[in-house]
From TrEMBL:
PROSITE patterns: CN_HYDROLASE. CDD domains: nit (cd07572). Keywords: Hydrolase. Pfam families: CN_hydrolase. Residues 6-256 form the CN hydrolase domain. This is Predicted amidohydrolase.
Length: 274
């Protein structure tokens, strides 16, 4: 049945390099979200392993189909009867020694229902303690937008640096997505400057809810991420947010009728000329 008000959860965590402790932290956080009524939970980018060099090995031995990560997430979804939009994890690609940054979606019956591969790779110099980010050294870019319907709500999927490329979200607007998801590991430096503004812009432009779950704090590889996981409504207002200091969960209600109301009173899609 299609619901007009849904309850969603976002997980903000400080992922380290080892897979199992990260998975256990994600599991505990998902459980807390479900206890607060969430029926769909979003995990951040690379919740499974952040800042590692052996992504290929992790993809092959832990994130492969039927492997420990995907079986555990599937079991979690089924046991807690919750949809899980699993931020991202490294998955094998058709290119040797390169992995995809994949956002897998698990429905509440435990089935894997969608895979979105991060399209824009973060090959950027940032004035922070790390300085140089070259995601394409280990990752290969996806090429397609992806939507997924969960309990009758249509979600448009993206990951982190994708947020800076509005044309991806314009596709989700054209497909009438009600929610777009942005699991992230935004740096502290760029997050402080750009995170909120970009997320608000995407919500206002697409007239949909934006759910953004971010990594937070100082990670094992020394990098610092921004936190401030947040939900913004189609009118650009903040529905709820976490702080930029510590791990936690955010559970909020989304009134999906607001998408329709806003789209009716200001029909951006109809007014598009280019
Ligand atoms: O590499 C990993 O282990 C996890 N992946 C990430 O941290 C990714 C790629 S380096 N980070 C971003 O895309 C940050 C984007 C950002 O901060 C911005 O757009 O300003």
């Amino acid at each position: 049945m299609t619901q007009t008000v849904i309850t969603v959860g976002l997980v903000q965590m400080t992922s380290g390099k080892a897979v199992q402790p990260n998975l256990r932290a994600a599991e505990a956080a998902i459980k807390r979200c479900v206890e607060q009524g969430a029926t769909t939970v979003l995990l951040p980018e690379m919740f499974v392993c952040l800042g590692v060099k052996n992504q290929v090995e992790i993809a092959q031995t832990q994130c492969q189909k039927g492997g420990p990560v995907r079986s555990q997430l599937s079991a979690l979804a089924k046991d807690f009867k919750v949809n899980i939009i699993a931020g991202s994890m490294p998955l094998m690609s058709s290119v040797e020694d390169k992995v995809l940054a994949a956002c897998l979606v698990f429905a509440a019956d435990g089935s894997e229902v969608c895979q979105y591969d991060k399209v824009h790779l973060f090959d950027v110099d940032v004035s922070d303690n790390k300085g140089r980010y070259r995601e394409s050294d280990t990752f290969i870019a996806g090429t397609q937008s992806k939507t997924v319907s969960l309990d009758g709500t249509l979600y448009g999927l993206s990951v982190c640096y994708d947020l800076r490329f509005p044309e991806l979200y314009q596709q989700y607007q054209k497909q009438s997505c009600q929610v777009v998801t942005v699991p992230s590991a935004f740096t502290y430096t760029t997050g402080q400057k750009h995170w909120l503004t970009l997320l608000k812009a995407r919500a206002i432009e697409t007239q949909s809810f934006v759910m953004a779950a971010n990594q937070v704090g100082t990670h094992e590889d020394g990098r610092i991420t921004w936190g401030q996981s947040i939900v913004i409504n189609p009118d650009g207002e903040i529905v709820g947010e976490l702080d930029s200091e510590k791990a936690g969960e955010l559970v909020v209600e989304l009134d999906l009728e607001l998408c329709q109301k806003i789209r009716q009173s200001m029909p951006l899609l109809k007014h598009k000329r280019l």
